[in-house]
């Protein structure tokens, strides 16, 4: 097997299953395109022919309909008028290929576009079952998020695809056969076919070879991603499409060696490696300046020098230290300033891992955190608890960045998992792994003691009302609903503060800001009972190990505490998951009157119950075009509390007065009118309105003109591009109204 094949095999194992399944929906069409030229919609007709392709291209490109008096689908209707059957079928299959990988487009919209093209046939065509199944897939399962540019370039995409079909048919059979088996030869054929249209080409090459190409339409995004992952690539190639895609495959292969299981480049723990803006982004909910809230203990893997070369010294001195030296880290306000200090040759390299290690050592590790010292990837040499803040010791000969650590263990243990290659790694988001490590060290000592927690700040009903834009009556109803039902769902469009409110609702009922009694997870289409409750996971040795999930562990924590102390399990995007599949037998146990009742678990010979002091708060984004329908079985077990934009509440009025900016006032007024139009739009409705959290206090607390400009250009206008991607005039009109506020 060649090195390219090995790399492809390793990378393919890491690709999200939902992306591979999505590409599978188009596999038969792509196979006929590259093979026997027959239509999948009507196998009696050859559609992938140079004649049909040239006629479709000429109808669209040689006779364009300019102007904005009609939309692009109306224009395509005119251009397909009286077209031969093979041309209509070709256009329909290209429309299907173009839209099947889009993330966020509603299945009914895709179907309506296809039906609009097929209406030019003289008969009612019955689509194959495998094509019809594609329209059952939720729109947020796999694929790429297309910008307005992708939606509006439909005529360019169809014209390019037709040109590629002509070129493909001009190649000799030997060349075509090579391209069918070699993804890079196929990509080169696409690039050689004529003037490039990266959006459509990237979509088509992903559908043809999802094992090789990423589901990313934008060439700019691919380049940004590649450059951000340069440290995982080694020698970076050029900026041409072939080099960028090869580098992305190399990066995926390297990451697959480091991170087990499937992943996408937008998974949080991957994105933080390449996206410089990741740490500066704000949530779509309100910012959460909980500076006075003791955060939960975090866990870190740490390398005391290469192959633990400094461990003997560090363990005896009771310290951990890092070996770079750019002066006192306290002087650097952000990661980029550290990167510039490290980059003495001004190469522009990202140095992400080095920068992240220094930043986290100085700013994120806190006293009480647990450090696991490692030697290479397979051995652990110690465990300890951080007892000091970071300090710079310039008199040390090396390793001048120092923290005091009470090392509780010194020895050698086999790491139950392959450790990350980085100097410092936050593993707090891997509780199963942490459990294994704590059990490993507990075997050699007395039970490990939790550190004494600081006095927790109080949090009352009045604090909630001061921070969350709801009325007193609404809060009383919400708190009463949660106490009575034990389970609630906060529903509403993005930006109404669901996450912000969920955490504070928990604090207000607890009476203190106790993060140890809250836990949050996020559901998605691939989330399962095994992720949520417990299930078997593969081991390095080729076997399987039963691992407990976050809900099981949190229930045990709540059960071990005083039954009068409430715990809150928060589920973001609850309706993105398959509820029956995730909860399994727990669906009965979560009912308020079933708390304490026991059932035997699926994977363990154990009777299990959900304690009465555990509450579940789910959040549901009503503007997600791919939402799963909440079925009756779940609906009757949860209380539902709708959240709406709160621009007219007294709390927001106070905030508006504090900002005291005419442009801000104008923006609020435009959004209020925009929300009326969204509510009255039959394809959208109230669940798509723009929430107030877009306009709440930024984390930087900098209320300058750039803040308002960023809200308009970087958040609101792109949002409208997704809402009205098929109504460009409405999108442009409202975008212009938003821009006018800034003048």
TrEMBL record:
InterPro entries: AAA+_ATPase, ATPase_dyneun-rel_AAA, Methyl-DNA_Rec/Restrict_Enz, P-loop_NTPase. Transmembrane segments: none annotated. Residues 484-644 form the AAA+ ATPase domain. SMART domains: AAA (SM00382). PANTHER family: 5-METHYLCYTOSINE-SPECIFIC RESTRICTION ENZYME B, TYPE IV METHYL-DIRECTED RESTRICTION ENZYME ECOKMCRB SUBUNIT. This is AAA+ ATPase domain-containing protein.
């Amino acid at each position: 097997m060649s090195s390219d094949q090995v790399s492809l095999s390793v990378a393919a194992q890491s690709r999200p299953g939902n992306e591979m399944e999505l590409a599978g929906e188009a596999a038969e069409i792509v196979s006929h395109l590259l093979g026997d030229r027959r239509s999948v919609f009507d196998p009696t007709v050859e559609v992938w022919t140079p004649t049909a392709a040239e006629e479709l291209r000429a109808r669209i490109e040689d006779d364009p309909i300019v102007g904005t008096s009609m939309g692009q689908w109306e224009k395509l209707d005119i251009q397909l008028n009286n077209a031969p059957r093979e041309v209509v079928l070709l256009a329909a299959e290209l429309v299907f290929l173009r839209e099947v990988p889009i993330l966020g487009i509603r299945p009914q919209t895709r179907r309506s576009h296809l039906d609009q093209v097929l209406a030019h046939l003289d008969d009612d065509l019955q689509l194959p079952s495998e094509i019809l199944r594609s329209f059952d897939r939720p729109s947020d399962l796999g694929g790429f998020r297309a910008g307005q540019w992708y939606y509006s370039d439909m005529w360019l995409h169809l014209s390019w695809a037709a040109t590629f079909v002509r070129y493909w048919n001009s190649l000799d059979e030997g060349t075509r056969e090579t391209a069918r088996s070699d993804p890079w030869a196929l990509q080169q054929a696409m690039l050689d076919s004529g003037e490039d249209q990266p959006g459509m080409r990237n979509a088509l090459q992903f559908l043809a070879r999802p094992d090789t190409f990423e589901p990313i339409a934008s060439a700019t995004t691919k380049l940004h991603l590649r450059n951000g992952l340069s440290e995982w690539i080694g020698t970076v190639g050029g900026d041409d499409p072939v080099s960028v895609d090869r580098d992305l495959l190399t990066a995926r292969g390297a990451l697959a060696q480091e991170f087990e299981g499937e992943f996408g480049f937008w998974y949080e723990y991957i994105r933080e490696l390449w996206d410089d803006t990741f740490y500066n982004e704000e949530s779509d909910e309100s910012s959460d300046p909980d500076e006075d809230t003791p955060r939960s203990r975090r866990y870190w893997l740490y390398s005391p020098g290469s192959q633990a070369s400094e461990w003997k010294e560090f363990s005896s001195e009771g310290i951990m230290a890092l070996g770079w030296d750019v002066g006192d880290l306290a002087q650097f306000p952000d990661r980029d300033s550290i990167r510039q200090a490290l980059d003495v040759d001004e190469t522009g390299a990202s140095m992400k891992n080095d920068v992240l290690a220094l930043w986290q050592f100085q700013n994120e590790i806190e006293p009480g955190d647990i450090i696991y010292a490692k030697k290479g990837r397979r051995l652990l040499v110690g465990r300890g608890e951080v007892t000091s803040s970071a300090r710079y010791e310039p008199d040390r000969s090396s390793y001048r960045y120092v923290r005091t650590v009470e090392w509780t263990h010194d020895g050698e243990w086999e790491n139950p998992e392959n450790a990350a290659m980085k100097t410092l790694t936050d593993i707090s988001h891997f509780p199963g792994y942490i459990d294994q490590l704590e059990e490993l060290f507990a075997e050699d000592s007395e039970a490990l003691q939790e550190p004494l927690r600081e006095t927790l700040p109080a949090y009352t009903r009045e604090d909630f009302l001061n921070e969350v834009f709801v009325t007193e009556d609404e809060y009383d109803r919400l708190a009463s609903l949660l106490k009575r039902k034990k389970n609630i769902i906060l529903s509403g469009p993005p930006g109404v503060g669901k996450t912000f409110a969920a955490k504070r609702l928990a604090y207000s009922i607890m009476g203190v800001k106790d993060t140890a009694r809250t836990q949050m997870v996020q559901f998605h289409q691939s989330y399962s009972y095994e992720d949520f409750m417990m299930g078997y996971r593969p081991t390095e040795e080729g076997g399987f190990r039963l691992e407990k999930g976050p809900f099981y562990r949190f229930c045990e924590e709540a059960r071990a505490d005083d039954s009068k102390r409430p715990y809150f399990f928060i589920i973001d995007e609850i309706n993105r998951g398959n509820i029956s599949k995730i909860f399994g037998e727990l669906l009965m146990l979560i009912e308020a009157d079933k708390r304490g009742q026991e059932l035997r678990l699926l994977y363990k010979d154990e009777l299990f119950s959900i304690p009465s002091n555990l509450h579940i708060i789910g959040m549901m984004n009503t503007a997600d075009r791919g939402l799963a329908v909440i079925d009756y079985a779940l609906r009757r077990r949860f209380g539902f509390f709708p959240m709406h934009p709160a621009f007219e509440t007294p709390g927001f009025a106070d905030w508006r007065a504090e900002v005291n900016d005419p442009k801000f006032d104008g923006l609020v007024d435009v959004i209020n009118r925009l929300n009326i139009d969204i509510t009255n739009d039959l394809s959208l409705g109230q669940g798509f309105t723009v929430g107030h959290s877009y306009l709440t206090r930024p984390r930087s607390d900098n209320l300058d003109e750039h803040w308002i400009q960023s809200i308009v250009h970087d958040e609101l206008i792109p949002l409208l591009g997704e809402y009205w991607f098929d109504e460009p005039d409405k999108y442009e009109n409202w975008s212009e109204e938003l821009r006018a506020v800034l003048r």
